[in-house]
Amino acid sequence: MSLKHSYTLIAPFYDALVGGASLKARAESLSRLPREGQSKVLLNGIGTGLDLPHLIPGHTYFATDLTAAMLGRARGRNPGITIRFVRADSLCLPFADGSFDHAVLHLIVAVVPDPVRCLSETARVLKPGGSVLILDKFLRPGQAAPLRRALNLLSRHIATRLDVVFEDVLTRVPGLRLESDQPVLAGGWFRSIRLVKA
Predict the structure, then answer these.
(1) Got the DSSP string for 117-143?
(2) Tell me, what CATH number does 88's domain have?
(3) Confidence (pTM)
């Protein structure tokens, strides 16, 4: 089963599955967007739009997702901000180099089949000096996590990967600098990360 198909099936239940648990972490991550100015912000992998109520007004947002069902739910949230919804693949974004001031990757890097390409594409469309806000689940370097790795054999085809080591991904995407990395959920399995493009 492809992720596109599985997330079409999951869309009606997605908020109930992850909404409450991730609410505080999402809000705290998005509070790192600039309070002033009029930035152009990419929401790469918007899903059902759980981030939308926490976005700072005044910016122009572009929200992408691979799945029409997820985008349809996001559109229905009517957040009262300037936003454009674009059906797009996070691994091949339909935007020019340096299009955005900031990017948000909440629960997408460890979902897609190629995390390095996802982060690389985000870096490509980001302006120098721009930030990337990441919220996702990652293994630590050298962490055995045998149960997660075993479950990954199935989960990576249905909903998400459980074996992604963020440090391994970041070392393969030149030009991004780690600014902060904080544990937020599940004993530090979920992390809130801020990167800056050189």
Answers:
(1) HHHHHHHHTEEEEEEEEEEEE-BPTT-
(2) 3.40.50.150
(3) 0.91
Query: Number of folded domains in the chain?
Result: 1
Number of CB atoms found within 10 A of residue 165's CB:
17
**CB half-sphere exposure, 74, CA atoms < 13 A:** 27
> Tell me: the pLDDT tens digits for 144-183?
887 878 776 777 867 788 899 999 999 999 999 999 999 9
Check: CB of residue 132 under 8 Å from CB of residue 126.
yes
What distances in angstroms separate CA 149 from CA 6, 110, 117, one per listed residue?
20, 13, 21
Which domain does 64 fall in, by range?
Answer: 3-197
Torsion of CA 25, 20, 74, 83, to 10 degrees: -30
With beta carbons less than 8 A apart as the criterion, state whether 172 and 115 touch: no
